[in-house]
Design brief:
By secondary structure, this protein is α/β, with parallel strands linked by helices. It is built from 15 helices and five strands. It folds into three domains: about 80 residues, lambda repressor-like DNA-binding domains (434 Repressor (Amino-terminal Domain), Orthogonal Bundle); about 30 residues, no CATH class; about 170 residues, 3-Layer(aba) Sandwich (Rossmann fold), CATH 3.40.50. Helix 2 crosses helix 4. It is globular and about 70 Å long.
């Protein structure tokens, strides 16, 4: 039986993603070597990896084991994490700052954090307060209340899911089908970074699972004033179905139990928000009044 077209497309997308990453890795190794004034011959000698293999790797055509990559990183005096991460290279000043902080003892780190907070905390907090991010499960009212709040504040209303679709060039459901969970998380991170870069003021409705990705959620918490919109599990479900989306109930007799389990697993993460608004048993107007008070407070 011939493979389905969708399966072929997903496999092709995965291969393209791997090829793109290998090109990124090759560029990073070549640039790191050049910055250090190392010839390929010297890197081969110091790392124990053949010069021919290094040439393939720098051209983006090589596939390498984590052990050999560790040898290459050590030969250039680089942390392995800096070599393999998928994010763009850090600004030089940030790299130098991290190196400086890494040499401090624990007690000095605490003092350094206090000094940074005292110096830059007010500016960071001021910018953060002008970006309002709504978090919570589907059906909490993020889109409805977020649009109302944006209008009230005279700020843009942004649904992060739509930004992910623009970033990926396809519908949200297809992002998972074609690219998988890992790629979705990367698109989500890039979409959030783009929103933060472009908008000093905004109301952002996030996906319910954004709290599951530590780095992305930490970025959200540090750049936005976050409000957790919550309701009873039954209300979450009924609101989603009332919007015409029956997927949560499709072929899943345990949908409510699954929803309760998801909410229980994320409660501690959602609770990291700056404020919480419980919309359970309340009208939209009542919930909106509480949301405005939470933002003002």
């Amino acid at each position: 039986m011939a493979p389905r077209a969708g399966a072929e497309t997903k496999e092709r997308r995965a291969e393209n993603g791997e090829a793109e990453y290998l090109r990124l890795l090759g560029d990073r190794i070549r640039e790191a070597r050049a910055r250090r004034g190392m010839t390929r011959k010297i890197l081969a000698r110091d790392s124990g990896v053949s010069e021919r293999y290094l040439a393939q790797l720098e051209a983006g055509h090589g596939n390498i084991s984590i052990v050999l990559l560790r040898q290459i990183a050590h030969a250039m005096g680089l942390p392995l994490g800096d070599l393999v991460r998928e994010e763009p290279d850090r600004p030089v000043e940030l790299t130098l700052l991290i190196q400086t902080l890494s040499r401090l003892q624990a007690k000095d780190l605490a003092q350094a954090r206090r000094l940074l907070t005292e110096t830059f905390g007010a500016a960071v907090e001021s910018g953060r307060r002008h970006r309002i991010a709504l978090i919570g499960l589907r059906g909490a009212g993020k889109s409805t209340l977020g649009a109302m709040l944006a209008k009230h504040l005279g700020a843009p209303f942004i649904e992060l899911d739509r930004e992910i679709e623009r970033e990926s060039g396809t519908r949200l459901a297809e992002v998972f089908d074609l690219y998988g969970q890992g790629a979705y998380r990367r698109y989500e991170r890039r979409a959030l970074e783009g929103v933060i870069e472009r908008h000093d003021r905004a109301v952002i409705a996030t996906g319910g699972s954004i709290v599951s990705e530590p780095a992305t959620f930490d970025l959200l918490l540090s750049a936005c004033y976050t409000v957790w919109l919550t309701a009873a599990p039954e209300e979450h479900m009924s609101r989603v179905v009332a919007q015409g989306d029956t997927r949560p109930m499709a072929e899943n007799e345990q949908a409510m139990e699954d929803l309760r389990r998801i909410l229980a697993g994320r409660n501690a993460l959602y609770a990291k928000a700056d404020a919480r608004v419980d919309t359970a048993g309340k009208t939209i107007e009542e919930s909106f009044r509480e949301l405005k008070a939470a933002v003002a407070g």
